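fyi for ur records
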Amino acid sequence: MSDVPENSPLPTCSKISFLLELKKDEGPSPKKRKTAFDEDPSVKLEHRLGGILCCAVCLDLPPAAVYQCSNGHLMCAPCFTHLLADAQLRDESATCPNCRVEISKTSASRNLAVEKTVSELPSECKFCTRVFPRHALQNHEDKICEDSDVGCCGRLTGCLYERIGCGWRGPAHEASAHEAVCERPHKSAGDVLPALAEREARAADHTRVYTQIFSLLSLEKITFNDLQLKPYRTEEFIHKLYYETLRFPSFGHQWVVKAFINNNQPHPTHTAHREITYQLILKSKPQCELSVQWVVARGPFGEARLAPRVSSHTFRGDDDPAPAPLPLADPEDTNRLLSNKAIHFRLLMFLTNK
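which gave:
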């Protein structure tokens, strides 16, 4: 049998066999290649990412800051501070709920990539069911959305004439219809004056504390101290956590500040609601009565915002003021303070003796 020249064409059957062998070597066609996502198209990318990026404690997508342990497990900021606060109350080391590695504010780190990814994930408006990125959803629901979903009243708003006494509250999309038939614009001045007086009284209550502070700043004897409340524990059968500052001088006397958790109850970890109460204590014996007013403010290194509040007491050497709630602007800041090794605050004291 003679050899076939290299440039001569192959027989038809040989061509088919050659192409089939070549096709097997190349693998299946990309167009026909199926994946698990093709078999279950209902599993969207944002749903899969939601399951991956959720908090290991509450299993929800983090609303803001995201922390991670040394092994990479994610925790939202509220759950992270809650874990640290619980460990402080129990006098234990905080651990990751997944891998049980020790966590703290120094060992855990922020995960900015996860935070940015979560903020871009789509989410539905609870009123109009339109889809927005998570970082824009809150502003839409609070200020923009005008629709209401089936069985939902929609975004609540007030009447345009609320300042002159109209108490109507309802869905934003119904506000225009109500304002067209509202009776308040047609009321006489005598009918409107009580509503304006009530509104003015509420505004006066809101600004009264600032007026008090400005008045106190005109006094001659004023001191302020940047203090640290450090944790201690009682020697009782059930060790109770309390905080106390070092002694500090003011008006020729020695003072300390003590703080308690949930009014010094035995097991503050058994409740989700937590409150910090503090007490100003005079440690030295006064020769005369001391009428003192004070304001607690956020310290130079403080993390929590404090609402301004003026307190007063007349110290006679045998009685101290009862513990008062620490005026936190946000109650959720309680865990944030408890998660720290010390609570920083500034105490302004005014001597009001005549």
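Confidence is low (pLDDT under 50) at residues 148-152. thats all i got for now
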